[in-house]
Amino acid sequence: MKKKITLLFIVASLCLFITDCFAQQTGNASFYNHRFQGRKMSSGVPYHRDSLTCAHRTLPFGTLLEVINPKNNKKVIVKVTDRGPRYRNRIIDLSYAAAKELGIVNQGIAQVEIKEWVFNPYYLPLPIPFDAYGLFINVKSAAETLKDVQIDKKTVLK
To answer: pLDDT (tens digit, 9 = 90+) per residue, 104-115?
Structure first.
């Protein structure tokens, strides 16, 4: 009996691990029509065509998704602010700006891959403190930089 419970626990753990590792969806995406401009979405926020937002059926509002167009390898990060799409053959509805970034405006519907985007600070480009000749450049600390900053209170407090 203990062996069966242990085996069941191991299988359940593996299933959770595998679904978390491969939590990527592939399917069709479309974008909002211009007539939805200014209308409230399910989250209560009005739709604006220049914002990078999307509609997804199940993910919670505020989730950031990375959407990739596999045909041209363009990527965009969008925020879930609405429920949808209405049609079953689509997995996501994008705002006009997001569709334009992916290059799917002329097609109307395109195959995309979506996955949840997680901020990773280790991928940020770090400035290299060397010049073109490979010599070390003295970099000021934040405290040293703040000492050099002069604030004119008369101009700021107007």
So the answer is: 999 999 999 999
